[in-house]
Amino acid sequence: MRLSVLQNSPIPAYKQLYDQIFAQIISGELETGAALPPIRTVSKELGISVITVRSAWDALLSEGLIETRAGSGSFVAELSRAEKERLRRKALQKPLSELASAARSLGFTAAETAEMVKDLL
Amino acid sequence: MRLSVLQNSPIPAYKQLYDQIFAQIISGELETGAALPPIRTVSKELGISVITVRSAWDALLSEGLIETRAGSGSFVAELSRAEKERLRRKALQKPLSELASAARSLGFTAAETAEMVKDLL
Amino acid sequence: MRLSVLQNSPIPAYKQLYDQIFAQIISGELETGAALPPIRTVSKELGISVITVRSAWDALLSEGLIETRAGSGSFVAELSRAEKERLRRKALQKPLSELASAARSLGFTAAETAEMVKDLL
Amino acid sequence: MRLSVLQNSPIPAYKQLYDQIFAQIISGELETGAALPPIRTVSKELGISVITVRSAWDALLSEGLIETRAGSGSFVAELSRAEKERLRRKALQKPLSELASAARSLGFTAAETAEMVKDLL
DNA sequence: GTGGTCTAGACCACT
DNA sequence: GTGGTCTAGACCACG
Question: Which nucleotide lies at the shortest CA–C1' distance from C54?
């Protein structure tokens, strides 16, 4: 499983891990039941603290994206297509509403803002 | 000059002040050379610390939106229309690029994302 | 009498005035008994507050460089050559000792430091 | 690591800390990657506020002398000999140019000024 | 346990 | 009476 963290990124290490695994689960790259690598392995390979890795796993757990079975590790949870789609949209909500509120307070129209988004993608 | 802060807002007080003054300068409601109220006056009227007010003033200063003369006061800086427009667009950059990177990693197309933005505005 | 103040200078306005008059007295350009322009005149011509001008005059007074005669204005005080020379050297003391202490703490030798001073002048 | 602050000094506490660490990094006494003590530890040991200590750390950070990783600590940055020498000279620039401008306006020659510097060191 | 953010206010120099 | 400097500390995110 490919995972990486940039040490000097403004995005905290645990969030980088979370985002990568999240995207792989949503996209189907990681299938239901697939085993996540052990926390200690990730910790060693990426040269980061086990606490950091655990934070990422915890976040995935609390979102219901993975399940942990004591003694045997963590696995991708069973998620319906609809549920995956819901999570995917939900993950876009925060940046979406932040952009909207900024655009509103600066007086940009919906069309202008949408245009800038298209240009950037 | 109208200014207000909501104490329970997730947006920090100094940022609320910054945003309000920013909008008033960009819109031309506050003209070049106009005096900002003394930080202590704002502090008293809004019931917040002078330091909080100063944080807002400092941010405006570092963006070149105001000029401050010790012992005399703070004044709206001279800004061309083009400069104001540049600052207005710059203020949208961060939320814009955050949305873009989230959309990319989640596999949303430019059209889809732009559509969601339009819906929200 | 030539006087000027740069508004955006890091050196406070009153100090700029003080320095200019100080230098003119020490150099003999302003002779003993010469009249300084009235505070209000300087204030108007330079577009600064009378309080600022008065601060400069006060500083010159307390150094014994000028004398004020109520109702008739301020005049360059009588100073011997020796006294002028003493004041001239005294005015260099602060920057001199600050350089010395900085040089010491950074481990520069006397020769190195002197050389840099020569290069700069 | 030895650090100290004199409470009654005219030099602000944060500057005293900055100067001491600066000197230890430039001299090589603190090597690349060496961990600085946590700000709270320094705060307690010297009996000053964590904020004062942080001010010193912030100044070192903005000069690129240290790197700080949230949750982990602050470490001496990687600096080449040439970079260290550049920073050492830069630290002398302000007192140097202040002396130069004072000497110029008072009519001291380069040789005279250099001589006074040598005498003082 | 680590640093970062936000809020805080006395004191001072300047006008 | 104005802003600037210095010192201050609770709270939070991160590791």
Answer: E15
Which of A31, A29, A3 has its CA nearest to residue A18? Answer: A3
Report how far apart the first and last C-alpha atoms of chain D are (Å, whole number): 28
C115 phi, psi to nearest 5 deg: -60, -45
Torsion sign across C-alpha atoms B16, B21, B22, B26: positive
* Local confidence pLDDT in tens for the 121 residues of chain A: 889 999 888 899 999 999 999 999 999 999 999 999 999 999 999 999 999 999 999 999 999 999 999 888 999 999 999 999 999 999 999 999 999 999 999 999 999 999 999 999 8
Domains located in chain A, CATH noted: 13-76 (1.10.10.10), 92-120 (no CATH)
User: For residue D35, what is the DSSP state?
Assistant: B
Q: Which nucleotide is nearest to D7 (CA to C1')?
A: F7
Q: Is D100 in contact with C107 (Cβ distance < 8 A)?
A: no
What DSSP state is assigned to residue C4?
A: -
Q: What is the DSSP string of chain B?
A: ------TT-SS-HHHHHHHHHHHHHHTTSSPTTPBPPPHHHHHHHHT--HHHHHHHHHHHHHTTSEEEETTTEEEEPP--HHHHHHHHHHHHHHHHHHHHHHHHHHT--HHHHHHHHHHH-
pTM score, two decimals? 0.91
